[in-house]
Amino acid sequence: MSLWIWLLGALAAIAALAWLGLWAARRLSGNAPRYRDMSYGVAFGYALALAAIAAGVWLWMKPGAVYFRWAVMGFAVCAVAAFLFRLAGRHLGPERLKRQFRKMPLTAAFGILVILIYAFVAIFAAWIAPHGQEAVLGAANVVPGGDPAMGGDPAFPLGTDRIGRDILSRLIYGAQNTVGLAFATTLLAFFLGGSLGLLAAVVGGWLDQVLSRGVDVLMAIPSLIFALLLLTIASVWADGARGLLTFYMVLIIAVIDSTRVFRLARSVGIGIVVMDYVEAAKLRGEGMGHLVFREILPNAMAPLLAEFGLRFCFVFLTIASLSFLGVGIQPPLADWGTMVRDLAQFINFAAFAPMVALAPLLPALAIAILTVGVNFVVDWMLHRASGLKS
Amino acid sequence: MTPLLEIRDLRIEGRSDEEWHPIINGVDLTLGRGEVLGLIGESGAGKSTLGLAAMGYVRDGVRISGGSVMFDGIDLMNASTEEKRSLLGRRIAYVAQSAAASFNPAHKLIDQHVEAPVRHGVQDRGESIEDAIELYRKLRLPNPEEIGFRYPHQVSGGQLQRAMTAMAMSCRPDLIIFDEPTTALDVTTQIEVLAAIRDIVDQFGTSAIYITHDLAVVAQMADRIKVLLRGDEVETAPTREMLDHPREDYTKSLWAVRGYHRPEKPKPGPESVPILAVEGVTAAYGEQVVLNEVSFDIHPGRTVAVVGESGSGKSTTARVITGLLPPRDGVVRFEGEALPPSYRQRSKDQLRQIQMIYQMADTALNPRQTIAQIVGRPVRFYSGLKGRKLAARVDELLDQIEMDPAIYRDRLPGELSGGQKQRVGIARALAAEPRLIICDEVTSALDQLVAEGILKLLARLQDELGLSYMFITHDLATVKAIADEVVVMKEGQVIEQGPKTEMFTPPHHPYTDLLLSSVPEMDPDWLDRLLAERGVEALGEAATDKM
């Protein structure tokens, strides 16, 4: 009950602050248009933001809020890194690239930086990682941080897991496994869904009906449950062969996700098919290949690319969830989803030993940062494709 | 007495590519009480921007960078949001180009009409509804008591435009800004709207700014005309003076456009085989019959104009000829030989012989292909030329449409102006080396000067290459300029056809007569004369008939 009273009181205080601030700003600025035309709602928004900042500072001062301080510091580091990256892009490299960087928002720069770093780590995992992903190195449950006084070990800066494998190395190899598989799956999904969707748009009629209703049937089944069901069947077929099971997993997720791509490609395609230039190509007597790949695909590229980014995130999360449930990427291969599952019980120590609880959060963070980064880039590309320049 | 609206040295900039570009560079405008000022200019001249600025409003991404706008002693540039809110809709009203897009489709007309008077406290809902019916009656809308209780989609385009004018009048404003209110309408509908707007503005002594690109329309409506060119004022003068003695070269060139005329070619001999013969074609979309027993011939080297209002079946005829819509009945013959009904069954050579040029050059050219690719594709597809020979042929085609290959080869359509895009559309049609080109409203989306250039180009190409044209248009001025023969269509049927000179000399079929007399002329008294001839009552009935 007292919480509600607190909340109401805070809201009333913010409302009063907004009214007072607006009145003062109008008086002090001599009724400048900026404050004169500002509505009370906008002033309330400013007051709310001010209150949020004050609450943030107060939380920062509290000794127990370790994770909050880490989050704020992490955010600041990311922002600075993105800014420096954009600054570098604006002054280095060929002129066309520089022009791109000049118009780029900071979020997009951050996203590109994240993608570049992940790609680099994934490709050169074998050279960067200090240990092998499967190597059991003795001491188990070493706390992250590398401080012997806290139960860490300088040889394992991010600690080791329950059976003594280096978490840093497994994170690095995880990029290769998780991201690589997600990329391959998304490519396959786009090849399937994109080509069939555009074909349905161009041909129309019964082919469109058959494909679309088939897709409807697939989409009617909850995707994660469906994937689990199919993977169970596949694991019988694979008969214990790990590589084969992973291949089946890629195939199954690609087919399930291609339904979404099909929908998008078809709807975008239908919008383009009615254009006069497609009609002109049809009347010229052009074949299906030319219509789909030369006339329609280049114009559907922007929404499809944006969808590619989003779909990549979803596929990536699906693989992580499947691995977490134990049917995805099989141990001992390192994978972020599996790592979260393996280290999950350490989260119970969060209240008294923040460093210990960090272990399961690291792979989760790796997933989160890539997802956010890819979405930033996708947003930017969508914005550019929609022609909104403001 | 102070003028109602006074704009001094107004400068407006628009933002694109992260930079501010000038749209209006220092224009002055004075509007007296009860005066109607016509604003004319090509697209991009800044007419609409200036019209909106007269309301103290700019669109997103646009800013006023200097000058002043005084409305009846109120400085709109420095007025607070509250002050503007009390003016807009009540003392200043706006009528947009497309009423169909500007009415909210989810609400009845009357509910949208009463909004302004009720919100501004001028009238209560009951009074406002009565007043709306009165205004509908004054604007000669059919069933004034009931029409307001319909939804926008239940009312025709011309009626919607008048309902919007009534809505603008609802608070009896001092100033109304009309932004191309008749551009999207057919000529016969346009007359009704023009007459209605002029009457009601007269009756209430309202001042108005009338924005249009059509000189003949502005001549009927305005007391004074201001000509704009790329954000600069060219000249301002009272209407009659401006029409009789334009001072500036630019204005003169605008006036001269209407003078383009191409003499009719001699009639073909009796043994001449028509290059295209449409014989008793009936076509339908599903159950809806849109073409009924349409027949006409096109002889080699001649231009046949197909004329009619929107919905008359002109474009459908073109779709039947090209094979996009197989007819239900009848045949299309090319040089005496029956063409297969669907384009899928036609041979490559049959497809090559008939090419199309489209109305909207924006959607007719693939935005992701360069000009060389767009023009080169049909060359390569039909003649199989490759490499250097292909490039040479593309250059030749670009030369034919008077565009420098060195500059334009590698550009994308988005980097061209409207007229240039239309030229590229022509080059693409020429690239197939056709005998017949179907031109579907090719000039109606273009400014008059640019349209004239396209017509001259088409005429020159016809003389050089012996092409035949089927020219689909609703604009009779274009027909007068270039046609040899005219086919008049209405509701899917051919009403009348014959050589141009015969068609333009009386006696006509009554519908042809209605079409011809509805084309605005550059004479300020034309509308008065026409209304007197037809009789105002008859006009009201004509409006009802069109329902």
UniProtKB/TrEMBL annotation, chain A:
Record carries keyword Hydrolase: no
Q: Can you give the residue ranges of the ABC transmembrane type-1 domain?
A: 175-373
Pfam families (UniProt xref): BPD_transp_1
Q: Taking the first listed entry, what is the main subcellular location of this protein, grouped into a coarse class?
A: membrane
Compartment(s) of residence? Cell membrane
- How is it placed in the membrane, per its record? Multi-pass membrane protein
The protein's UniProt keywords, in alphabetical order, are: Cell membrane, Membrane, Transmembrane, Transmembrane helix, Transport
- Which Gene3D superfamilies does this entry report, sorted A to Z? MetI-like (1.10.3720.10)
Cellular-component GO terms for this entry = plasma membrane
One Gene Ontology biological process = transmembrane transport
Which InterPro entries does the protein's record reference? BP-dependent_transpt_permease, MetI-like, MetI-like_sf
Question: Which residue windows are transmembrane per the record?
Answer: 6-26, 38-61, 67-85, 106-129, 181-205, 217-238, 244-262, 308-329, 349-382
Which family does this protein fall into? Belongs to the binding-protein-dependent transport system permease family.
PANTHER family referenced in this protein's UniProt entry, alphabetically: OLIGOPEPTIDE TRANSPORT SYSTEM PERMEASE PROTEIN APPC (PTHR43386), PEPTIDE ABC TRANSPORTER PERMEASE PROTEIN (PTHR43386:SF25)
- This protein is called Dipeptide transport system permease protein DppC
Gene encoding this chain? dppC_1
From TrEMBL, chain B:
- Main subcellular localization, coarse class? membrane
How this chain sits in the membrane, per its record, is: Peripheral membrane protein
Spell out the subcellular localization from the entry.
Cell inner membrane
| Keywords, comma-separated and alphabetical | ATP-binding, Cell inner membrane, Cell membrane, Hydrolase, Membrane, Nucleotide-binding, Translocase, Transport
Q: How far does the signal peptide extend, from start to end residue?
A: none
Q: What is its EC number?
A: 3.6.3.-
Domain ABC transporter, first and last residues per copy: 5-255, 276-516
Q: Which residues cross the membrane?
A: none
A GO cellular component term found in this entry reads: plasma membrane
Gene Ontology molecular functions: ATP binding; ATP hydrolysis activity
GO BP field: peptide transport
Q: Which domain of life is it from?
A: Bacteria
Family from the record: Belongs to the ABC transporter superfamily.
Report what the protein is called. Answer: Glutathione import ATP-binding protein GsiA
Species in which this protein is naturally found: Limimaricola soesokkakensis
Q: Which gene encodes it?
A: gsiA_1
